[in-house]
């Protein structure tokens, strides 16, 4: 199979028929073998009924319906698990991503041997203040932190080799950072393509300003996980031991100075009246706690079980 097109969605009943028709037109024009996997992330409108109807008229249409809204990352994870195509395309269901971009993305993967190609919505039809400027700041921070030099991490239109999506773990709200996850998994040939961004035709955006705040928090998380996710003791243990040693040496120095003054006949104060004693003691306590945090992190990492992060209510054609 040439292509798997994965489309997570939430309440997009108006756009689904038009999007399906558009995809079929592109697939037919290029004679691709394909599957379209719609993941209904807890829609409360008629989105699932439309997907079910489309699957009856087109056996290439497949669907997964979540029990409730679990988030875009979980929807992509479910789609990645089912994808069979040599090239996997992800795109949004709101018609802002153009299926006409798919052939070029497919060729970049198959002919130019990219592991991953990310879309870049260079010209956007969004609010400048509410989305464009925060997006530019977010992308700048993501480039500096991750070392992956893409202009648009948030673009939902991306293409992957099948082996890439089978070897990365998308959880939480990490869908923004799939290129970083791919890089950390050893897939270093990551490209970018300028794609058409279309104005929203139906409904309204499901993401507000909070996504940028969450995005920055996730950026910190992925920075930590990429460096210390497999060895938390290397961070917490090292910092903890350093703080404990500093506190211990400072306490020893305070007590030693106290004894020297006593035997020399100089006036001295109680050790507990010295503010530095409490600073040293606090450093020792914090150092011990950080060391224990690293130790517990190592234990959890070695004993954790893979938990089910979403529940599927229904599937069609899968």
Report on the structure:
The mean pLDDT is 85. The chain has helices at 16-29, 47-57, 72-82, 102-110, 128-146, 162-165, 178-184, 210-228, 232-264, 275-303; strands spanning 3-9, 34-40, 61-66, 87-90, 116-120, 158-161, 190-194, 312-316. Helix 1 (16-29) links the parallel strand 1 and strand 2 (34-40). Strands 7-5-6-4-1-2-3-8 form an eight-stranded mixed sheet, sandwiched between helices. Helix 5 packs parallel to helix 8. By secondary structure, it is of the alpha/beta class. The radius of gyration is 26 Å and the shape is elongated.
Looking at this protein, list some descriptive labels.
318 residues; alpha/beta; 8-stranded mixed β-sheet; 10 helices; elongated
**How would you write the strand order of the largest sheet?**
7-5-6-4-1-2-3-8
Structural class: alpha/beta
Distance between the first and last residues' Cα:
15 Å
Main sheet: strands, sense, barrel: 8 strands, mixed
Instruction: Enumerate the spans where pLDDT stays under 50 for 5 or more consecutive residues.
Output: none
Query: H/E element string?
Result: EHEHEHEHEHEHHEHHHE
**DSSP summary, beta strand count:** 8
Reconstruct the topology from this structure:
Elements: E1 3-9, H1 16-29, E2 34-40, H2 47-57, E3 61-66, H3 72-82, E4 87-90, H4 102-110, E5 116-120, H5 128-146, E6 158-161, H6 162-165, H7 178-184, E7 190-194, H8 210-228, H9 232-264, H10 275-303, E8 312-316
Parallel strand pairs: 1-2, 1-4, 2-3, 5-7
Antiparallel strand pairs: 3-8, 4-6, 5-6
């Amino acid at each position: 199979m040439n292509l798997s097109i994965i489309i997570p969605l939430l309440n997009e009943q108006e756009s689904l028929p038009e999007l399906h028709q558009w995809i079929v037109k592109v697939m037919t024009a290029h004679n691709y073998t394909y599957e379209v996997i719609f993941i209904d992330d807890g829609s409360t409108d008629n989105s699932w009924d439309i997907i079910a109807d489309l699957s009856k008229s087109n056996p290439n249409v497949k669907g997964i319906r979540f029990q409730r809204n679990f988030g875009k990352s979980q929807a992509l994870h479910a789609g990645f698990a089912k994808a069979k195509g040599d090239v996997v395309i992800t795109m949004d269901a709101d018609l802002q991503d153009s299926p006409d971009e798919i052939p070029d993305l497919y060729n970049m993967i198959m002919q130019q041997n990219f592991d991953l190609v990310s879309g870049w919505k260079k010209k956007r039809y969004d609010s400048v203040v509410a989305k464009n400027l925060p997006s530019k700041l977010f992308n700048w921070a993501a480039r500096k932190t991750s070392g992956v030099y893409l202009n648009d991490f948030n673009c939902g239109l991306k293409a992957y080799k099948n082996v890439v999506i089978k070897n990365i773990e998308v959880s939480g709200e990490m869908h923004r950072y799939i290129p970083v996850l791919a890089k950390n998994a050893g897939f270093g040939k990551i490209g970018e393509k300028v794609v058409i961004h279309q104005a929203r035709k139906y409904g309204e955006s499901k993401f507000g300003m909070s996504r940028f705040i969450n995005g920055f928090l996730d950026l910190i998380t992925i920075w930590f996980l990429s460096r210390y996710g497999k060895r938390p003791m290397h961070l917490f243990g090292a910092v903890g031991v350093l703080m404990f040693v500093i506190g211990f040496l400072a306490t020893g120095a305070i007590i030693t100075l106290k004894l020297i003054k006593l035997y020399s006949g100089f006036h001295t104060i109680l050790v507990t009246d010295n503010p530095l004693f409490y600073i040293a003691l606090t450093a020792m306590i914090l150092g011990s706690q950080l060391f224990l945090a690293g130790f517990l992190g190592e234990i959890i990492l070695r004993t954790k079980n893979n938990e089910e992060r979403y529940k599927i209510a229904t599937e069609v054609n899968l």
